[in-house]
Amino acid sequence: MSIVSARSAARRGDLLRLSSLFVRTLREDPADAEVASHRLLVRAGYIRRAAPGVYSWLPLGLRVLAKVEAVVREEMNAIGAQEVHFPALLPREPYEATGRWSEYGPNLFRLQDRKQADYLLAPTHEEMFTLLVKDLYSSYKDLPLTLFQIQTKYRDEARPRAGLIRGREFVMKDAYSFDIDDDGLAQAYERQRGAYQRIFDRLGLEYVIVSATSGAMGGSRSEEFLSPSPIGEDTFVRSADGYAANVEAVATPVPPAVPYDDAPAAHVEDTPDTPTIATLVDFANAHHARGDRPWTAADTLKNVVLAVTQPDGARELLVVGVPGDREVDVKRLEAALAPAEAEAATDADFAAHPELVKGYIGPGVLGPQGKQLLDPATGTTRSAVRYLLDPRVVAGTRWITGADAPGQHVFDLVAERDFTADGTIEAAEVRAGDLAPDGSGPLELARGIEIGHIFQLGRKYAESLGLNVLDPHGKQTTVTMGSYGIGVTRVLAALAEAHHDDKGLAWPAHVAPAHVHVVATGKGAEIFDQAAEIAEGLADRGVEVIYDDRPKVSPGVKFKDAELFGVPLLVVVGRGLADGVVEVRPRAGEAEQVAVADVVDVAATRVAELLA
Amino acid sequence: MSIVSARSAARRGDLLRLSSLFVRTLREDPADAEVASHRLLVRAGYIRRAAPGVYSWLPLGLRVLAKVEAVVREEMNAIGAQEVHFPALLPREPYEATGRWSEYGPNLFRLQDRKQADYLLAPTHEEMFTLLVKDLYSSYKDLPLTLFQIQTKYRDEARPRAGLIRGREFVMKDAYSFDIDDDGLAQAYERQRGAYQRIFDRLGLEYVIVSATSGAMGGSRSEEFLSPSPIGEDTFVRSADGYAANVEAVATPVPPAVPYDDAPAAHVEDTPDTPTIATLVDFANAHHARGDRPWTAADTLKNVVLAVTQPDGARELLVVGVPGDREVDVKRLEAALAPAEAEAATDADFAAHPELVKGYIGPGVLGPQGKQLLDPATGTTRSAVRYLLDPRVVAGTRWITGADAPGQHVFDLVAERDFTADGTIEAAEVRAGDLAPDGSGPLELARGIEIGHIFQLGRKYAESLGLNVLDPHGKQTTVTMGSYGIGVTRVLAALAEAHHDDKGLAWPAHVAPAHVHVVATGKGAEIFDQAAEIAEGLADRGVEVIYDDRPKVSPGVKFKDAELFGVPLLVVVGRGLADGVVEVRPRAGEAEQVAVADVVDVAATRVAELLA
Fold this sequence. Notes:
The first copy, chain A, is α+β, with helices and mostly antiparallel strands.
């Protein structure tokens, strides 16, 4: 005798009767819902808003969430990751040690306990994982190790939006690998990468793997899993030959330097009323036409003034020089400046920096050129505003740019000969048709929802928090770590974005709140008796069933609700019963008429096919 | 074909190898651990402290927790309760509407978001459940309804203690029933009560059901499930004939009034140096002996001065009069005064109330007797300190008590004739041998850990938050609610308290992190090969196995770890292998020698018996 016999007894499928299921559908879209997943999950009674970016889960939503979690858990277990669970409420100290208590700025929920000790609601748990491993382990023999948790996280987003896609309380799977060397880390990374592919495949969620910046997290190799969607917050690029990256991670191919020995000397020209690139190009073509071709915006160097705020609140100006045919992409800029945030400079900023002549700003007063300006307000000198250039502005390139006086621009200003900067920055927008940095050709752009992120953290946290182990030679060695996240609640929203139509949700069978939705339409007791028998029969076969047994609800309302809920297979018991048939119909497909006696078999078979 | 066939495939049991399992046992008790569950759960590597009253869960601990949760969930589902999930981070408003934002006082974790909006970490979710039902439901036809969640809660305890028993972040199952009338509520209450009995029976946790006060929650019928344990924070009483109550809920049987027509007049006597009951009784017997029997402490009326603080911080004095042979039990007092808190009056309090002569306080200056005292500090009059009496101080009882002057007491002071109070209060300690209020005889006292609490909330929250439905006559009716909690993490600790010995934990099979612990002792590859084969064979049979495959760890250490972990069945592969036998031994029982070929069968059978 074994205990398997007890376990393998056929498990009955859940049977949810709509007459008692805790759910109400809404005919109207909620006022705050901008995207389909938010709109439909609320309308179908899966979730309810409790506060901005904070949601309550109703029974149907919780069923889907549990299924997503189960798939994530199974695939983590399958690669030997071990499950743990950390608190959400954590003391300040570990986050102080890594600098993130302040780096997170206003995105962190902070609080004090009754003894005025500082706490936070953890947005992520690198510190805790690192300290726990330090607490338990001390030798290379204990490694490799991968831990994970599925846990509620908090982030005080400035603009929570799109329902579950950017919330302030959300569920994440976060995993961390611990290895003695880079090779081990690379292997752990590959194992997670494979598990992520299997997870999203099983969930029925299309994804693209793109190179990513590491943002505020530090580290080296890093990829994001994006679910392509027009409502995604991330923009990514792809080349036909396989390059794929988050737009924030795209490195601009640096053109070769241009010889400038025979370049004409720079010359300042009066360019009245040309505060914009368009007016400047028009003026140049009208008054300083070049022989070979017209001037274009790409011949001008646009110097954009930004204010950069560090997490500790320190704010300073920065000028970014980009070719005049490109805008500064603030997300790319912030990715390059992380954890600082950037915004356009204000009138007050310009007033405090009279050397910045709006519309006519040039390198002459910036960075290396502008050092030790006299501050008229204080009568003392100060350093010029920091100046960073787009990587395309290589030595020898020639530019029309501001001459730092109203109505004046300088022509033939040559990079390196006439000006330099404090460095380069990836801040210019990436455009369709730009070339991939790996030489794989022109890029196309698309949007996606970030559903997973894997990256090689390296030794940053282990160093900050002192996670060392003895290596085989008895020497203390810093552990190297990887970090692997999946936004579990966001995955559910991405599934809803990918699988719906204008009538409602349309879940893949593996995550649907039930497999079959049985609808009794009509008034006769016979219809309800037969529908109940079919629902029970399916449940006995292990099928999960929603049964719409509401006695006084019209067929129209029942069908609308069924379409909204999005269960993959519908069984309709109604008029056909007089002829001994019942309708079996996929959520969005052709109906088949099935003899009553066969319907449980047929529907169970269809479900098994969907789950195969 | 049905989908059951896919599901019922024999599930393999987990096999945890100690060479890679994320766990480290400690030989020393953690310094802050006062109780066995805390000590052993930390030492066995189940949990780790992250902050006071806040714990991280390691793989073994999480496995036990998941099993406890699963039993709770199954029994909730079985009685038709529907699972939902609320946020932990909640806005202030609903808790303001019910008054609990302030009533919770310093026990509530409060915080502000980046827009300075007030939030809390929910200690309990009555408000959210009530509002959600109000949001979705509107008719008596929607009822009855019971919802539940298994969720993380927060409580900023003044003194988090005993590990998981009183934490600040903890997991609870909370359920709420919604009914149109009292009869429906009574039925819902009984269903939960039955489910609780099944839950604790399945978990293998002894419990006593006792009558309870409702504390700060309001409402009527209320019972607690206590796991008897000397380290429990709750004291309960039992009579041989079936009365059982939390000591806070014990009502003192009120004796009949005593005729006092022929009682002597009260008379003040000099009683120098008698500030305590003991000195007073000695003096009375020495100088004012009574003929029939000696005076005892029970003849004196002790007036205890307390300071009562309301949740809003308002603080005022209260005097409680109890027979001199009893102490005031602060927990009983606070249960009677909830949500206010009480403490002993300070020297400053006495200084501000010169009429309260320490050691000689009597009813003469208290409550009704003492109205409109002159306050020497301000020269104005104020009301006397509020005065409440133990229910035993009925009309006609005669007392020796303070005369409100140093070294003086009054004798033959008769209740009702000579003094009254502002009311009665259940504040005197309950003692073994006291009579049960229902006439079922003398009480015995014991301690227990509160693992569950069920009570009929009634209409308090529905009224505060406007949860009405239309009744069958089309009239708006307030819904009546029940509230049903289980401390899931605390249940795990109570299980550890109930099932351990001085060597370690000893889990019931249903909640153990594994069913069998296989130990390979010795150095030969043959032993490890055989042990691995047994472990794999058991896992194939669906048995969950911990396999101690550590190559260079001594048998002594392995046995100590096995005893600490507390898995119910041990299989030892060692020297006996030379004779073809392996040892099979319960965690605390007799070993049997089993032929190698039979060991998987035998161990699987033992496990099946333990799980039966």
